[in-house]
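Case study 2.
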Amino acid sequence: MPRACGQVSRPTQETWQHGGVTAATHSPSFTADADSADAVLLGLDPEQREVATTLRGPVCVLAGAGTGKTRAITHRIAYGVRSGQLMPASVLAVTFTNRAAGEMRGRLRTLGAGGVQARTFHSAALRQLQYFWPKAVGGDVPRLLERKIQFVAEAGARCRIRLDRNELRDVTGEIEWAKVTQTVPADYPAAARKAGREAPRDTAEIAQLYGTYEQLKRDRGMIDFEDVLLLTVGILQDRHDIAEQIRTQYQHFVVDEYQDVSPLQQRLLELWLGERDNLCVVGDASQTIYSFTGATPDHLLNFRTRYPQATLVKLVRDYRSTPQVVHLANGLLGQAKGRAAEHRLELVSQRETGPDPVYAEYPDEPAEAEGVARRIRDLIAAGVPAGEIAVLFRINAQSEVYEQALADAGVPYQLRGAERFFERAEVQKAILALRGAARSGGNDPLLDDVVELASQVRAVLSSTGWSAQPPAGSGAVRDQWESLAALVRLAEDFSRSRPGATLADLTVELDERKAAQHAPTVQGVTLASLHAAKGLEWDSVFLVGLTDGMVPITYAKTDEQVEEERRLLYVGVTRARLHLTLSWALSRAPGGRASRRPSRFLNGLRPGSAAPGARADSAAERGTRKRGRRGPVLCRVCGKTLTEAGELKLMRCEDCPSDMDEGLYERLRDWRALQAKEQGMPAYCVFTDKTLMAIAEAAPTEEGELAMISGVGARKLERYGVDVLAICAGQDPGAADSDDA
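Prediction:
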């Protein structure tokens, strides 16, 4: 039956379940021959489809990790453009990183909505500020100060306040927080106390530094990134004609990662909107990890209070991670508290089953790093690309030991958050070479008999250090080769997406990417902090250094600060598609005191740990109380979920190595045979072989430890406990009774 004009086609269940709804980063946005509005909707699941087709009024999308939120909102924009309901130039899509904005622009181009503006808050505001400054203020826009830490250092010198490197960074962070919360220097001490800030210096000193920093900028005619937002807000508040001009241009707004919006960004968004409500926001309160910068999930959680008529859509189908990874992520959030936890999303994995998360304990940090490096080397040997592996830690200072371990293992790596890609010397040299070749055209001897774009790039970059095969080992030479190889891969992708593109076209693309800091992917194991990993994903993820005092970090004092640390670990877990390893070290250095404990967030999730809030009974009480299954039982050796009765008794897989005392096991068997003969019963009625093996592996020294072993119930504990403990202690099982006599 033909559809009525404008009626949206509905996909069959097979279309979205089996027709390619996969991790958004691993699938094309839509097929090249899809040239209609309805074609944009193919492959979306029912919830993503609702997002894509609800084009009017306020829409709030609560999207869990890996649920295809970027796919949903880009297809929403593209469907609106393709169906004629949205004009490309009337849409402003806002996100929080240059990489995310660049990815969104790329997807929109592929979907046929290339005229849509997709920018960060700062980029959109700076563009408007530059355009309207001559009209609103007059003259040229002040120069942009990209790195404010030098000015903060100079402010410290003027105030005669000595700041070390860490204090400089922390004070700079406090100034940024004050500005995004629209706090002036004089009000900073009171605002910091009210917000419960752990100030790095006396708040009066920071207020003085803040004021001096602002004066330095004014004296030199400069503004910082926060000023871009503040000045844009000021102009839009004071100049209604300019505000109306912007509102005439932009009729529809989409905001990604809405849980990370600061009060200042929210104010700017309100000024863009005016009295209208064509706003779609997307976020997940459980991924709020930037509150220290002024971000708050309150705007997301209060959205339906501000807009009672808003459409609410929840995305919970996880296309990124296996059921095992999703189970751990859900368990981690299941222990969360606070307002964000009340709105947590229970993810449902759409992928096939995979390996269980691995939990690994090491005696010290170097041993942990070496163990991780060995495991990574094994994964690469098994076919996992180095670029699909990440090592994530809480603070950047943890990276050094992993850099050394990977270098020693001959594994290439890249440090995320270090020097910007386009600022690397080899990248700048390569782009100059490409630009020169583009200008000379057919007169460049390097391009003789080379026609195809990617081949031209390879030919040009061969003169700057690129080769078809990477150099052996790691270090600076390998790092430089990886940068050039990233440019080659970018050229290959660009050539595929734009057949007929020239070297000149590629240099324009590189200039645009440099301006947006949208770097290509470098092949190599990624080393990154948990914060820097937000928005990224890998096949294999190693979460390292998971000890109390690091995760949660020691300076997380309040309940909300601790809960943010839990959310940070949740973000780390949900970066993994397939392999996930969680590890910790009991001491910092070899030979150190083993005083560290695994992160409290893993309690009840890792093997052998009690759930938070469990009653602290004696071991005997825990063993004799009727046992109930609270969840999956995991192998104490490899972490795999146990299902067989014998494995559950041993608390390990049958094929995992045993640490059983063979001599003890034989003594227990001899004792059991004697007991069975005296009582006229089969030997297994005393204890089964598996129970004896479990006892021999545990070698209990007191009644409570024996009571915890599966197969040792209250009756057998009372009847045989004294004998078994005596045998475990290397004594004659009848010796205690003889002494008492």
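Residues 1-34, 615-631, 736-741 have pLDDT under 50 and may be disordered.
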